[in-house]
Amino acid sequence: MAKKLEPFDYRKHKPQDVGKGEPSTEIITGVGLADGQEIIIPTVWWDEKGNPTVLDVKDAFKQALKYEKETGLQFPRKATPEEATAFAIARSKAGGASKGLLARDTSKEQQAKTAKTFVEALR
Fold first, then answer.
1. Euclidean distance between the first and final Cα of the chain, in Å?
2. Is 94 helix (H, G, I), strand (E, B) or coil?
3. pLDDT tens-digit map of 2-53
């Protein structure tokens, strides 16, 4: 049976050395999608015991798509590789995965953006 893997979750995982010589929470990369967008995914995935696994980009991409399908959460998408790189740099400078989850419930974000009132945004 394959291990269940998930991206770093600051609420339950602890940073660990994944071969970079210092504790890491995530290493992210961009992958081009058929629609021209760039999806930003982690290459470090964590098992149920809190152990990290570093995947190559191909396997990380497969894992990311599987994770999105299973959870309904979505990894960030950017219009260009340059925008994806800028996102990754800004995320790292802001504290990376130790400050927030990479995958998000985009349906709730969209609902909040289109809400006419604060109360409507919370529904």
1. 38
2. coil
3. 679 999 999 999 999 999 899 999 999 999 999 999 999 999 999 999 999 9
**CA nearest 6: which of 48, 65, 61?**
48
Cα–Cα distance measured from residue 115 to residue 12, given in angstroms and rounded to the nearest whole number: 32
pTM: 0.82
**87: amino acid identity, one letter:** F
- For the chain, the 3-state helix, strand and coil shares in percent, each to the nearest 5, are 35, 20, 45
List, in sequence order, every residue forming a beta bridge with 72; answer none if it has no partner: none
Whether 41 contacts 60, CB under 8 Å: yes
Strands (E), the chain: 16-17, 23-24, 28-32, 38-42, 44-46, 52-54, 77-78
Handedness of CA 100, 68, 48, 88 (dihedral sign): negative
Interacting residues of 45 by C-beta distance below 8 A, sequence separation 6+ = 5, 6, 7, 52, 53, 55, 60, 63
